[in-house]
Amino acid sequence: MNFLKRFFSKESQTPHVNIKERFELIGRVGQGSMSKVWRANDYISGKMVALKVLHKQKTLDLESRFIGLNKPTEGEIAIHLNHPHIVKTTEHGITTENEQFLVMEFVEGYSLSFLVESQNKDMRANCLSYIIQLGEAIQYFHEENWIHRDICPRNIIVNNEHELKLIDFGLVVPNTAPFQQPGNRTGTAAYMAPELIKRQKTSQKIDIFSYSVTCYEMLTKRLPWDAAETLDAVLQHINTPPEDIQNILPDVNTQLAETIMRGLELYPQDRWQTMADMLQPLKDVYLTKQQNKEALPEKNIKSPASPQTISTHKKTQTKSKKTHSKKKSHHKKQSQKSGKSTKKQDTYRLQPDQTSPELKSSTDSTSPQEKPPLKTPPKTDHLKKKNPSSKNNRKNSDDNP
Ligand SMILES: Nc1ncnc2c1ncn2[C@@H]1O[C@H](COP(=O)(O)OP(=O)(O)O)[C@@H](O)[C@H]1O
Ligand SMILES: [Mg+2]
């Protein structure tokens, strides 16, 4: 009831926007499960924007799960986010059809899900950079005290300058006790942390799990566990250890692989405790590669956005390492190497950006991120074949919340 009161009082206070008068709707981009997104020309600012209009009933269904908790809407959350790897939202409101809408910068580029599938030259060259950029976005998000709950490649776009942008805040909740209570099973099944599927108490560690699944997929083109269609099936297979990245990619950097594997631990207490803890060894791998001027594929990686964050997290990392060293992992005994820095750095040197001709602007307004033209067929010989059947079965509701 409170929720409905709040919803309708908000509606009555906010001027309703007729989107057809306000925007020139140029074309639909990518189909979301909860919304329609258009590339649009904003008649007021004269800018090209992404206009996201939320599905009315699905949004009501989702928000009715948080009755009495005063959950902020997607627009209210997104408007305050300010990070180079999070899409910028410039406005939000309600349409004359009583739908919530968001106006965002239009990110010209490709969905990370496309890049994972294609494993093209740019993906291979920039994979570690993308991993760090995404980690920085999630770290910022967590420091702002949110839980994203839907980290997966479909909710990430990489622009033509190789900058990664996290999008979609539709399932975000505050990182506070009432929102951590068991029951609210939302997200995308293949990326959902076991405690979420098991309807246990959640924390920001569910995002660390989803991030680790995403990183695993970026490197190997496959999921750590075979994709399953139902949450029960996911739960069953998730109880077995995931295949080690090093078995799939024998030449992968050990510290990189071990860091990601630790993010996939079944029990949240065995995972990295914070995004900052997890990012540190990843950044160390990146720096070492830069220093050693390693040969391809990482040679022309674009540098992540906020290098200065490194030194500030040394303390937490050391503390977390100690905690973890006492624990025996459920999946398997993990090497503690993954938490160790290779070399101490005072500054994080940036490499000059090098763009590659393969990721150029797509102007197809129907679905530019999902089906870009490829000049050459992607080379995926370096990956052992074992592909997931389906990984996009986003569950925004289930039978018994
Ligand atoms: N700012 C943006 N710029 C360009 N495309 C976008 C933008 N935001 C969303 N999209 C496209 O719209 C799709 C759906 O957006 P998303 O926010 O994930 O919606 P949903 O909550 O319905 O999943 C994305 O996968 C992407 O292809
Ligand atoms: Mg989405």
Counting DSSP E segments of at least 2 residues, the number of strands comes to 13
Mean pLDDT comes to 77
**Structural Rg:** 21 Å
N-to-C SSE string, H for helix and E for strand: HEHEEEHHEEEHHEEEEHEHHHHHHHHE
The fraction of residues in strands falls at 5-15%
Which structural class best describes the helix and strand composition?
alpha+beta
> Main β-sheet: number of strands, strand sense, barrel status?
6 strands, mixed
Oligomeric state, counting identical vs distinct chains: single chain
Q: Catalogue the unreliable spans.
A: 295-303, 306-401
Helical amount among residues, as a percent range? 25-40%
What is the spatial order of strands in the main beta sheet? 1-5-6-4-3-2
Molecular structure report:
This protein is α+β, with helices and mostly antiparallel strands and 401 residues long. The protein has 15 helices and 13 strands. The chain has helices spanning 2-13, 19-22, 56-63, 74-78, 112-118, 121-143, 177-180, 194-197, 205-220, 231-238, 245-248, 254-263, 275-292, 309-312, 314-326, and strands at 16-17, 23-31, 35-42, 48-54, 89-95, 100-105, 109-111, 146-147, 156-159, 164-166, 173-174, 187-188, 394-395. A hairpin with a 3-residue loop joins strand 2 (23-31) and strand 3. The two termini are 18 Å apart.
